[in-house]
Write a structure and sequence with these properties.
It is a single chain. With 171 residues, this protein is an alpha/beta fold. The chain has a single domain (6-170), classed as Alpha-Beta Barrel (Aconitase, domain 4), CATH 3.20.19. The protein is globular. 32% of the residues lie in helices and 20% in strands. The protein has helices spanning 20-23, 33-46, 76-83, 96-104, 149-157, 160-170, and strands at residues 6-13, 60-64, 86-91, 109-111, 124-128, 133-136, 141-143.
Length: 171
């Protein structure tokens, strides 16, 4: 899979301090992907957005405010995002462990201040990882913070496990 140079998708707009236990309720922890996805749908409804909508085929990008992913440190909420087709998470800031869980499972965590109030659910968004900006449908651009080099290498491999496999193969 790896880190794409350009990511496009439809926006799921969330607020500040999005708690992982609301995003994906613990009662839906499972190895069954359909149950995990059901939990994400419930979480997104609790957070006031439509989980799938009519734009699922375009891919999904979460755009949130401050402290995205606070709450428990379990990676199950990020696994649910993977199953739900989320291509990237853009936020003003992240809870530290959630940030790492995103990278570890291959979803780019991107910091961009000021964009959340400029988008609504369903907007088309284009992210240029290489050039470090986000472009909206109306051609407005917003800068994204550069990724840490170590995080970028993990994302280029598609997550932490593939990254570690590559390192072991090189030994």
């Amino acid at each position: 899979m790896g880190l794409q140079e350009v990511i496009t998708g439809r926006v799921w707009r969330l607020g500040d301090n999005v708690n992982t236990d609301i995003l994906h309720p613990p009662s839906y922890f499972s190895l069954d992907g359909s149950k995990v996805e059901e939990g994400l749908r419930e979480g997104m409804q609790r957070l006031g957005t439509d989980f799938r909508g009519e734009y699922v085929g375009d891919g999904l990008v979460i755009v949130a405010g401050e402290n995205m992913g606070c709450g428990s440190s379990r990676e199950t909420s990020v696994r649910a995002l993977c199953i739900g087709g989320v291509k990237a998470v853009v936020a003003s800031s992240f809870a530290r462990i959630f940030y790492r869980n995103l990278a570890n499972l291959g979803i780019p965590p991107l910091e961009c201040r000021g964009i959340r109030d400029q988008v609504k659910d369903g907007d088309l968004i284009r992210i240029s990882i290489k050039d470090r900006f986000i472009e909206l449908d109306d051609a407005r651009h917003f800068p994204i913070s550069p990724l840490d080099q170590h995080i970028e290498r993990i994302l280029e491999c598609g997550g932490l496990v593939p990254y570690l496999r590559r390192i072991l193969d090189e030994i």
